[in-house]
Every structure is written in C-alpha cells, then in structure tokens.
Amino acid sequence: MTGSSTMSLDDGDIHVCQDGPRDAPALLLVHGSASSTRSWDPLVPLLTGSHHVIRIDLLGHGRSAKPADRSYALPCQARRAGAVLDRLGVEHAVAVGHSSGGAVATALAEERPELVTALVFINTGPSLGALIAPESAAIAPAQWPPSDEQIRRFARTGFSRAGYRIPAELLDDVRGMTHHSLTASMGATRSYLEQRALPDRLAVLGKPLLVVFGEDDRRWRSSSAFDYRAVPGVEIELLPGLGHSPLLEDPPRTATPLLAFTASHAVRRD
Q: Looking at the whole model, is its pTM more than 0.90?
C-alpha cells in the first residue's frame, strides 16, 4: 500500500511517503543533503515485503516547506521526523539514513531513544576528518538557481563512476531548493559533527547499528567506516565497486545487509 501526503507541523509542512503494510515493522528512511524521498525510490520495492517504509522530505528539501526563518539544525530536523512518526501512530522504528541523513537519524535517537530501536547508516561519514575535499566550488547566491552543468558538478561525487547518469529527478531536487535551505542544511550537518563525532554519540546510546559503505565513495573516506567500531556490537558492510550512493547504484546489494539486520532488530506493531 502506497501513500503520499503533507503533514502541517508547527514550523513547516513536511512531505511524507508510506509504502508497504501498515502493520509491519517500521523503517524510517532519511535522505541526505540536497536530496529527497526520491533518492530511495529504487530501494523501496525491495523493503516493502516485510516493512512499513516511511520516507520524509526534511524541511528545506523535496516537496517539504523551505522557510527562511526556521531552524535547520539537526535536532530540529529530528524532532520533525519524530512528530511525523507520532502522527502516524508509529511507536518504534529502525532509522535508516543515507549520508547526512545518518546524522539526522542519530539526532532522532538522541531526542527520542524510546522511538528508535536501531540505526542503519549508508555512507554516513563519522566525523569531519573523514570528509574528502570537494572538487567543485560552492554555488554562490548570485548563481541561484544553478544551471544543469553546475548541479551535475555538485552532484557527481555522489557516485562511483564518472560516467554515471545522474537521475533527472535528483537534479530537480537540488534545483528546487532555495540557496538558504541548501547552505543552512549543509552547515547544520557540519555544526553537528563539529560538536561531537557520530561514533562518540552512538557509543553512549546503546542502539544496534549497521554501517553500509560503498568502498569507492568520493565524498567520505570509506576506511572511516571502521571508526564506528567504537560503538559496541556494530556491524560494518563494505560494498566494493560502489560509491557514495549504493542505494541508487546497486539497490539489491544495499538491501541485502539492511534486511538481514532489520530482521533481528525491527519491532512489529501491535
């Protein structure tokens, strides 16, 4: 069962997608910076046989509101995600984050530990020290909205192969943002990681964690996946030949470790 809706929260409208049986264990999928629910489209059909899959467009992204006078700090984004799950009647969920979406999932586990039963990161850098310097310069406000070529330069490190054809809808996601929502969101992730690295945050939470990393990531050093060994019981899965976005480059290989992990840690709704 598939559904798409907009939820009006106190500080902005949030776009929500739901797929799969509503009584199945809940998976919350959180996209990365300058992306949207659509980044998960190829992966979702592989998950709905056993899960109630919930996707949200974070504030400032996709079909959600893009206000200039609201906070894009990660704890605020996490509270919005928690409010969405509350509205849906979801009491427990495995939070899955791609790239900076993993940091939002961490903030949600910090804010609502009773809600998040486990976490899955897909190419989420553990700290700013793992960041690979960007190849292209930032897009200036005067250049907004950006050209297709500027967006492609911005997005190309998200994939392992230089010739990978970036889906048009993902380019539209960048174009559809405001310059403020883009820079504020990326700055919020940097600030969150500057305050405390993710392994340090997770080590005290006691949540089961799976880290999936494309070995050919061009944004975060894939060897940094092993920094998460500071988290007791962590499971780490490296995917050779894939880059920063294995959920798009090879959905079946991404789904395999994810489903094996959630089979042990997802909670069925009463």
A: yes
